[in-house]
Amino acid sequence: MSDPVRRPWTSEEIEKLKAMAGNHRREKIAAELNRGAPAVALKAHQLRISLRYHADAKASTTQSAPGR
Residue 55: what pLDDT? Predict the structure, then answer.
């Protein structure tokens, strides 16, 4: 079995990764960049970029508990 083809990251891909990080799930970022999720996670780690997804804070604050 051969190794998967490795291609260097372009500056455009890195900028898109930075722009999407935190706003989109890693699978969505990987699909947009036409790369695997592990490759995206590794590159983000190398660049010290968090891929933790932050859901829209407004959606969680506008919903209140029943009876309040």
Answer: 76
